[in-house]
Amino acid sequence: MYVDTHSHLNFREFKDDLARVIKRAKVAGVTKIIVVGSDINNSKKSINLAQKYNNLFATVGIHPTHIKGGWGLITRDGMLPSILVEDYDTENGQSKTIPLSYLKRLLNNPRAVALGEIGLDFYQDENRPKYNKDAQMTALTALVRIGQESGKPIIFHCRNAMNEFIYILKKFKRDLKGVLHCFPGGIEEAKILLERGLYISFTGLITFVSDFDKVIKFVPLDRIMIETDCPYLTPKPHRGKRNEPAYVVEVARRIAEIKKIPLPKVAEATTDNALSLFNLD
Fold first, then answer.
1. Contact 208, 235 (CB under 8 A)
2. Domain ranges in the chain?
3. Which residues contact 138 (CB under 8 A, 6 or more apart)?
4. Could you tell me the sign of the dihedral formed by the alpha carbons of 253, 256, 260, 266, in that order?
5. Whole-angstrom Cα distance, residue 31 to residue 15?
6. Where are the alpha helices (DSSP H) in the chain?
7. Taking CA 205 as the corner, what is the angle to CA 236 and CA 30, rounded to the nearest 5 degrees?
8. Are residues 53 and 22 in contact, defined by beta-carbon separation less than 8 angstroms?
9. Which among 64, 147, 176, 236 has most CB atoms closer than 10 A?
C-alpha cells in the first residue's frame, strides 16, 4: 500500500485519460493520491476531483511562481488582504487579485486535506519571467498564518531559496505541521526542517541522481514521505514518459535500496506518515 502525497492530476496533461491513470495506480498498490493545488483554478479542480473519486484528496494553494505581487503589507491583523496571482490555465496571461479570504473558504472544504503548495521559487532561466522575491516572501508569511489558523498541514515548495525559506520558518515560534515536497537540500537543511516539525518528501529525482543518498540515509523513516509530483520528474525505469501516481512505487523502492531495508517497510512507514499528517483515515 502506497500514498502519492503530491500529484497534479488536476493539470491538463491528464485531461484525456484520468480514469485510466487512477486505475493503474490502484493496480500498482497506490491506494490514496493527494491532488495538489498550485493556483485558484486548479485548487478548485482538485476539490472537484476529490469529490468524484473517493481515493483522491485535494489541497488548496498558490505556487510561488504564480505570485506576482501583494497589497496591504501593514493591516490591522497583519495579513495580506489579497495576492496578485496568475493562474496556470489562463490563456491570455492576465493576472488577477485573489482575496486570501477566498483561499480560506476553499481550504475549509472537507475534501481539502492541506494548504499547499506554497513556498519560494527563485529559479531563473531565459524561459521564465523574473521572479518577485519580496512578493513571494511576504505572501508565504501570510499563507503560513492561514495554514496554522486552519489546523490543516502545509505542503511547502522551495527551489533555489533554502536560506530565505528557513528564515521565514524561524519567524514562527511554534513547530509547523507539514512537509517540504521534492526536498532540495542537504543534511544540515534537513536537520533544521526536522527540528521545526516538518516531514521531508522525495520524488523520482532520487532514482536518477545520487545527490540525495546521504540525506535519505540520515532522515528517519518515520519522517519521510514519497511523491511523484506528476506529470514531472518521472523516475527510472520510466524516464521519457509522463509521470503518474503508479510510479511512486519506484521512489519507495529506491529509498529501500539506499537505506538497505525491505521495500514493504518503506511502504508501510511512508503510508502511515501520510495518513497521520493529512488525516486521510
1. yes
2. 2-278
3. 70, 73, 80
4. negative
5. 21
6. 18-28, 40-52, 100-107, 133-150, 162-169, 187-195, 213-218, 248-259, 263-278
7. 65
8. yes
9. 64
Class of domain 2-278: alpha beta
Q: What is the pLDDT of residue 130?
A: 81
Query: 117 and 156 in contact (C-beta within 8 Å)?
Result: yes
Based on the number of CB atoms within 10 Å of its own CB, is 265 exposed (0-12), middle (13-18) or buried (19 or more)? middle
Q: pTM score, two decimals?
A: 0.94
pLDDT in tens, the chain (281 residues): 999 999 999 999 999 999 999 999 999 999 999 999 998 889 999 999 999 999 999 999 999 998 887 654 435 455 556 777 776 554 455 677 777 888 899 999 999 999 999 999 999 887 777 888 988 998 899 899 999 999 999 999 999 999 999 999 999 877 789 999 999 999 999 999 999 999 999 999 999 999 999 999 999 999 999 999 999 999 999 999 999 999 999 999 999 999 999 999 999 999 999 999 999 97
What is the residue type of 154? I
* 72 DSSP assignment: -
- pLDDT one-digit tens code per residue, 10-54: 999 999 999 999 999 999 999 999 999 998 889 999 999 999 999
Residue type, 38: S
Q: Is 176 left (phi over 0), alpha (psi -120 to 50) or beta?
A: beta
Cα–Cα distances (Å) from 274 to 83, 84, 171, 199, in that order, read: 30, 31, 26, 10
CB burial of residue 240 (10 Å; 0-12, 13-18, 19+): exposed
Distance, CA of 98 to CA of 37 (rounded, Å): 15
